[in-house]
Structures are given as C-alpha cells and as structure tokens.
Amino acid sequence: MSELNGKVAVVTGAARGIGAGIARRLADDGARVVVADLSEDAAAATAAEIVAAGGEATGFGSDVSDEASVASTVERIAAEWGGIDILVNNAGIIMDNLLFKMSVADWDAVMGVHLRGSFLWSRAAQTFMVERKWGRIVNLSSTSAYGSRGQANYAAAKAGIQGFTKTLAIELGPFGVNVNAIAPGFIATEMTRASATRMGMEWDDYVALYLPQIPARRVGEPADIANVVSFLVGEDSSYVTGQIIDVAGGPVH
Q1: Which CATH number belongs to the domain containing residue 50 in this structure?
Q2: DSSP secondary structure string for all residues of 198-246
C-alpha cells in the first residue's frame, strides 16, 4: 500500500463503478480525494461515503469533455485544496453499435469523454505537477483497445489513450511526472451490467459467456483496478512510466 500523505488526487467519473473504487482506495492510502463526476450530487454522495469511512474527500461536478467546465473545476480545486498531485482519468461512456449503424453523434460523444476529457484534465493538472517536480497521471484504457466488435468508437478512443499515455510520459518525465495507463478486462460494474441488458441477457448468463475466456476464471472487481492504481501513484513505482498494464485476469493480446 502506498502512503500518499495528504496529496491531492482527482479521480474523474468517480461517482460509481471503477472510479468510486479508485477514489476509496486512494483515500485509504492517505490521499485527499476529489471525486469528479458529471453529476455533482452523485459525486458528493460518494465523497460523503469516503468521509464517513474516515477518509478526506469532496465531490465536484465536471463535464470532462467541456473545456470551460474542466477549467472551472480545476480553479475550485486549486482554491480549496491548493492544486493537483495525482490525476486518474477514469470517466467514460459507451455508445456501442456496429459501424454501419453508428451515428456521428455516438462517435463524437465517446471520443469527447475518453480522449478530449483525458487531454483537458491532463493539460490542467500537469501545470501543478511540473511546478512541484512530482506528479502521477493514470489513464484508464481498456482491453477493447485491441479490437472489439461493435465498439469501433470505444476501441479507437481507448487505443488513443494508450498513445496519449506514452507521449505524456516522454514529455513530462523530465519534470518528475509519471504517466501510465491501465487496460481493464471484464470488470463487474453498472456499465458492464448495462451492456448485458442491451444484449437482452441476464447478468449471470452474460458472465458465463465470457468466463471461459478469462484464464483466472473470475470476473474482475473495481478493487482489482484500484489496487494497481494505488501502486502506480506511489513511490514504489517511481521508475515505471509510459506503460500500459492489462488488468484482465490473463493475457489478452
């Protein structure tokens, strides 16, 4: 477990699912956590749960794809907590469809949240990190980046995250800022359950469909991702940067 000693960690899309799991773990590690989500009420509710468990957290509403919204949220963080030491770009949406059925709006929405959002938040956060000569950015990619039927937009966005991550590692490394990405496999979240619903399947049947493809023979939980984030933002990983780490219960490509 890393000891983050009051460092300010921002986790986007953190009101639920993987993001909430990451926020809780970083609070357990000693970070002061900003739970950022499109819904400020939902973000505040998750932050309140962290506080009730003994951590330090606050919830802010932020549209990661909107430059003005991100700038406003960063200003609030700087005013209230003094800046950003750790950024986890987790916010994501899915608008799955086969290519010939996919609308431009669905393509743009997914690109906006995943790629534009990661760009806007990273650009803002690095200002504090470069000045302090220390920082950690963790981007959430996906094993879908290696190709996933019906997810041309999502797969392209998550593949883009990987190139974005490696480039930031090169640019920010000289300033003591490490940048890595995690590519989750099958993780049990509300988003995954929604995928099962869209396919007209019961959750248990959906899991049974994918389980034989996972060498570990279990689906992942948000805590599995949070554990790796905890390592990547701590001092024990100070020589690890520009890496894409699959967290999928086995090799995927």
Answers
A1: 3.40.50.720
A2: HTT--HHHHHHHHGGG-TTSS-B-HHHHHHHHHHHTSGGGTT--S-EEE
Determine, yes or no, domain membership for 55: yes
> From CA 209, how far away is CA 182, in angstroms rounded?
24
Total domains in the fold of the chain: 1
pLDDT at residue 199, as a whole number: 84
Average pLDDT for 210-217: 95
- Edge-to-edge strand ranges of the sheet holding 32-37: 56-61, 32-37, 8-12, 86-89, 135-140, 177-184, 244-247
Global confidence as pTM: 0.97
- 9: nearest Cα among 159, 241, 226: 226
Rounded Cα distance, 191 and 205, in Å:
16
Residues designated catalytic:
154
CB 53 within 8 A of CB 23: no
Q: Which domain holds residue 179?
A: 8-188+221-247
